[in-house]
Amino acid sequence: DVDEKLQRKIVLECEKVDEEYNNSKMSIEECQRNINKIDLNGEKTIISDICTDIFAGGDKPKEFSETKTEKYTIPVYANGVENEGLVGYTNFYRVNTNAVTISGRGTLGFVCIRTKPFVPIVRLIVALPNESLINLKYFKFAVSRLSFPNTGGTIPQLTVPNFKKMQINVPSLDDQQRIVSEIETYEQQIAEAKAVMAGCAERKKQILDKWLK
């Protein structure tokens, strides 16, 4: 049996880990609030005016594998939050330039940056920002701030024509970079806090192993 003194010691050590977990969780929430409060100044600009192309993904490729193989290495993305929309792999690409994808069905407006060749499917919206006018990461952030109206009736849907007409604030490239740097600072803090949270369960196990084995 574990004596009372040792029990208290174990409880105190575990509570310290719990406190770090909760502090990290609060830190993430605070960083997210700070990101959401960042003011996006600049001229209201129609999205199609700052992109070289905007289009929607088509059918799933016939050459397709759910897992990455020697033959199938190009990611295939659809609408969806899970795994950032990754559904499998193919052996060709449709997009081979920096892009931002916007979920056009289901979870409307889930936005991701894509910097490697990929294939979009199932009406996933792809925007190719003109990077002489707009910073890729700023564009992603500004688009993620938009409210997306449901234009699909029963099934939530965002169409390319509707997305093209939407507007975002576009400040100077220097201001865009300043905003991006501020966001990245908070994102780094969020990543560090998530790493602490991810390690908490293992640390508790180590405490129990240390005193009870």
Describe this structure as you would to a colleague.
- The strands form three sheets. A four-stranded antiparallel β-sheet has the order 2-8-5-6, covered by helices on one side. Strands 4-3-7 form a three-stranded mixed β-sheet, with no helix packed on it.
- Helix 1 runs antiparallel to helix 4 (173-212).
- The protein contains four helices and nine strands.
- A hairpin with an 8-residue loop joins strand 3 and strand 4 (86-90).
- With 213 residues, the chain is of the alpha+beta class.
- The radius of gyration is 22 Å and the shape is globular.
- The model has no long low-confidence stretch (mean pLDDT 92).
